[in-house]
Amino acid sequence: MKLMQVTDPENVFAIINENFAFLESEKIALERSGSRCLAEAIYSPENVPDFNRSTVDGYAVTARDTFGAGEGMPAMLEYAGEILMGQAAPSINSGECWLVHTGGMLPAEADAVIMIEDTELTGTMLQSFRQVAPGDNVIHRGEDLKMGDPLLFPGHRLRAPEIGMLASLGITELNVHRKPVVGFFSSGDELVDYSKETLETGKIRDSNAPALLYLSEQKETLVKYGGILPDHYETFLEKSRSMLEEVDMLVFTGGSSVGSRDYTARTMQELGEPGLLVEGISVQPGKPTLLASCKGKPVLGLPGHPVSALNIFDIFGGAIIKRLSGLAGKEFIPTVKAVLARNISSRSGRTDYVRIKLEDADHGLSAVPIFGRSGMLRTLAEADGLLTVPASKEGLSAGEQVEIRIWE
Q: How far apart are CA 250 and CA 246, in angstroms?
């Protein structure tokens, strides 16, 4: 390989957005739309609510019939009956009231609701001990949504609240961007399948594949696994070319040899134009990360060390998946605030991702750095999340409040 020209992380995110397009849309049932990104705008097909409703349990009235009411001189109203939930409201005459329940429909002539606790019912006469103004305790027709109001825009990721809102409007199908299909290869002659019971000397089990497949599925993708590629370039290229035809994104995890990284870079150049976009990222761990665009599809080359592979795929692979999935704008990542337990040194000009274990402390959460080489799986399993040390800093001091990106 030629000397690596590393790219700043923020520039990598910009490269991703500039080079890769949203996937095409598909129509799916509302109940299957969770976590998918809309491919079109949605407008309210009706008014919500479609009738004036009470916000309390009380009595529907014409507000002017209560003017001047107080503890010493209550307003006297004739009790006309109860409006049951789901029942169309009858008319109301001057001087009358109807018992209504929270969310219930009001008579067309009623413009306010007196709360039950401000009244006393004796036979068919209701005493109101306070006056109400027009609009008190009422949500009006179309107050939540008016027909034609914009609800959601293209690129919005659907959550339970949005699904519930759309269901309340009778919307049963949505146009969303389809899920990306992500293909994975491991590479290196030293690797064997993780299911192998007995290891030959010099061999190691492939721990990256099952971890990455799970992480990718968490990001709402469909996954394909092509197995372990040997350090043989023709085989490497042939299998990669075949897999690329079947997926929207291709991911390699390199072996420990320099040759396997060479094969990944050469393959990226052969799979289609424009080829390599990133030949290294100024991060630790994960510097020898490769990114290419081959026939418009992203191809990501991850380092072989497990910590690097998972960190890089979570951060940069995740950004690619969001782009393909049609996400518009920034999506917030779950984080927690904690107090750093130890000093962390860092090199200016390089972004560091530090594994963190969270512990309870008197002041709240304590962030304990976990140090170790990127090939040490135990340190990864012990971590609750990642702390980002930006390139502009030369480290962080114990006692600082920091933000931890949580591992799911």
A: 9
How far apart are the C-alpha atoms of 95 and 97, rounded to whole Å? 7
- Which domains occur in the chain, in start order? 9-23+178-324 (3.40.980.10), 25-48+144-177 (3.90.105.10), 53-139 (2.170.190.11), 335-406 (2.40.340.10)
Prediction pTM value: 0.86
Please give the Cα distance from 44 to 42 (Å, whole number).
7
Q: List residues bridging with 125 in a β-sheet.
A: 78, 122
Q: How far is CA 76 from CA 124, 125, 129, in A?
A: 10, 7, 9
Question: How, if at all, do strands 351-361 and 344-345 pair?
Answer: unpaired
Is the peptide bond prior to 285 cis by the omega test (within 30 degrees of 0)? yes
Q: 3-class SS at 115?
A: strand
> pLDDT per residue over 301-337, tens digit each?
999 888 899 999 999 999 999 999 999 977 778 899 9
How far is 225 from 170, CA to CA, in rounded Å? 39
DSSP 39-107: SS-EE-SS-BSSS-EESSSEEEE-GGGGTT--SSS-EEEEEEEE--TTPPP----TTEEEEE-TTPBPP
Biggest distance spanned by C-alpha atoms of the chain: 97
- Helices 233-244 and 258-271: crossing angle in degrees, nearest 10, is 40
Chain centroid, CA 106 distance in Å = 40
Contact 6, 281 (CB under 8 A): yes
**pLDDT tens profile 350-397:** 999 999 999 999 888 999 999 876 556 677 788 999 999 999 998 999
Q: Tell me which residue has tokens 């995740």.
A: 318
Instruction: Yes or no: say if 286 and 303 are a contact pair by the CB < 8 Å rule.
Output: yes
pLDDT digits (tens, 9 = 90+) for 33-56: 999 999 999 999 999 999 999 999
131 has a pLDDT exceeding 50: yes
Coil, strand or helix at 226: strand
Instruction: Tell me the β-bridge partners of 57.
Output: none
> Would you say 28 and 179 are in contact if contact means Cβ atoms under 8 Å apart?
no
* CA dihedral sign, ordered 19, 277, 389, 213: positive
Distance CA 319, CA 13 (A): 7
